[in-house]
Specification:
There is one protein chain. 19% of the residues lie in helices and 38% in strands. The chain has helices spanning 58-66, 75-90, and strands at residues 11-13, 23-33, 40-50, 54-56, 94-104, 107-116. It is of the alpha+beta class. The radius of gyration is 16 Å and the shape is globular. The strands form two sheets. Strands 2-3-5-6 form a four-stranded antiparallel β-sheet, with helices on one face.
């Protein structure tokens, strides 16, 4: 596998496709460029998903995230584009991407984008004593 930035996302078979479980990832080093000024924008990405048949492979995800480092993108657009690419690659039951961008001009921006498979419903929460 390459160690250069790449837009290619690899997957692997879900080891427990019959079980609904959640995968959570924290990606603290996301960087893209402001499309207006060319200055770097930094964010922490929080990815949560309920896989169906496939899971995203971590090294390819790292290289994919790295590929945005020299691209200009508005926060809203890049968050939704990443979610769309991940959904296309993995076809999850549910996926949420939260992008928490560092302060710029005194403003913090957080963008939350979600995907739900048409036939998927969240399980009821379990309250333990």
């Amino acid at each position: 596998m390459s160690t250069a930035p790449s837009k290619h996302l690899e997957t692997f078979p879900n080891p427990q496709p019959e079980r609904q479980y959640t995968i959570r990832m924290r990606i603290p080093e996301f960087t893209c460029l402001c499309p207006k000024t060319g200055q770097p924008d930094f964010a922490t990405l929080h990815l949560e998903y309920v896989p169906d048949r496939t899971c995203v492979e971590l090294k390819s995800l790292k290289l994919y995230i790295w590929s945005y480092r020299s691209e200009g993108a508005f926060h809203e657009a890049v968050t939704n584009r990443i979610l769309d690419d991940l959904v296309r690659a993995t076809q999850p039951r549910f996926m949420r991407l939260t992008a928490e961008f560092n302060v710029r001009g005194g403003i913090y921006t957080t963008v939350v984008a979600e995907h739900r498979a048409p036939d998927w419903h969240a399980p009821a929460p379990v309250a333990l004593p």
